[in-house]
Hints:
- By secondary structure, this protein is mainly alpha-helical.
- The chain has one domain.
- Helix content is 61%, strand content 6%.
- The longest helix has 24 residues, at 82-105.
- The two termini are 18 Å apart.
Amino acid sequence: xxxxxxxxxxxxxxxxxxxxxxxxxxxxxxxxxxxxxxxxxxxxxxxxxxxxxxxxxxxxxxxxxxxxxxxxxxxxxxxxxxxxxxxxxxxxxxxxxxxxxxxxxxxxxxxxxxxxxxxxxxxxxxxxxxxxxxxxxxxxxxx
Length: 143
């Protein structure tokens, strides 16, 4: 396996952080919204008259990934610090709680992402675990 320069991995990390932040901020324009499975097909939660209609607002929680993005930009050229890893994992936890809260009333997150399909939501569901793993790798290798 070839050696890949640490600048590349930092670039990938920053790109994923920027992507998750952008999709979280613009989810209402990039996506049809969170949906639930019914016999007739997907039922979009924003059609509800109750509080389930604001399930899409939970996706705005992913804007919190702007914090580790800003920290990594400020620390460009320095080794990945432990608190940066804690920030990314904390943001992933906040995002996970937001998705869990959205699923309490109407939304079926994985159904919305992969069966409807919703590329914006699917990209977040893939990017966040990759970010956590890449952050762990950058921290362990002190890149």
